[in-house]
Structure formats: structure tokens, C-alpha cells
Specification:
The protein has one domain: Glutaredoxin (3-Layer(aba) Sandwich). 25% of the residues are buried. Helix 3 links the parallel strand 1 and strand 2. Helix content is 41%, strand content 20%. It is α+β, with helices and mostly antiparallel strands and 112 residues long. The N and C termini lie far apart (27 Å). A four-stranded mixed sheet has the order 2-1-3-4, with helices on both faces.
Length: 112
């Protein structure tokens, strides 16, 4: 995994160092589902201040470096939830409504 981790974004490395749970969104701007998921994540973020919210436009691969490869991102929108201890990773591919995302974020904080 050394080569894959060499080019990780600073905000991801910071969240790992700070042992923060992460909500990572890979999206394509302008796409209907991607825009809805992005808006939901942005609306929910203030309710989860202890989480690191990392939002990556897939049309700007320099911003996320090798992170998409490391996390096996396939098809945006894709939300990756990572627990603060890095032991739990949940991948949500495609449209997710705000209520469902909220529940996933609650569960992320409880280890469920």
C-alpha cells in the first residue's frame, strides 16, 4: 500500500492523525444525483462537528491524489464512511437521501 498512500490529500492525512471519523464524498459536478448527495452532505455537516467531511470533485483528480484508488472508488456519487479508529469502512454508491445519510452518520459515531 506504500505507493497508494504516497499521494494522499493533506486533509485526509490530518483526519487520520486527529483520529476523526470521516465522511468522504466523490462526486461529479452538475450531475443530478451527485448534486443532491453533495447538498445533503453539506446540510448535515454542521450537525456532526467532530467528523471530517472531505468532498472531492472527480474532475479534479489532483485534489484527491491516490485516495480514490486506495478506497476503491468506482462510480460517483460515492460516499465512504470511515470510523475514527479506521476499523470500519462503509461505502455508499449512488443516490442517498438526506434522512438515510443522517442515520449512517449517527451510526458512524456509535460504531454501529
Amino acid at each position: 500500500m506504500g505507493e497508494a498512500t504516497a499521494n494522499l490529500p493533506k486533509n485526509f492525512k490530518d483526519a487520520v492523525t486527529q483520529k476523526r471519523a470521516m465522511v468522504i464524498l466523490f462526486y461529479v459536478p452538475g450531475q443530478v444525483d451527485d448534486s443532491k448527495v453533495l447538498a445533503s452532505i453539506q446540510a448535515l455537516a454542521p450537525s456532526f462537528p467532530k467528523y471530517a467531511f472531505l468532498l472531492y470533485n472527480t474532475q479534479d483528480p489532483v485534489s484527491y491524489g491516490s485516495l480514490a484508488t486506495l478506497l476503491n472508488v468506482n462510480y460517483p456519487p460515492e460516499v465512504v464512511l470511515i470510523s475514527s479508529d479506521l476499523q470500519s469502512v462503509k461505502v455508499l454508491t449512488g443516490y442517498q437521501d438526506q434522512g438515510s445519510l443522517n442515520q449512517y452518520l449517527v451510526n458512524l459515531g456509535t460504531g454501529a
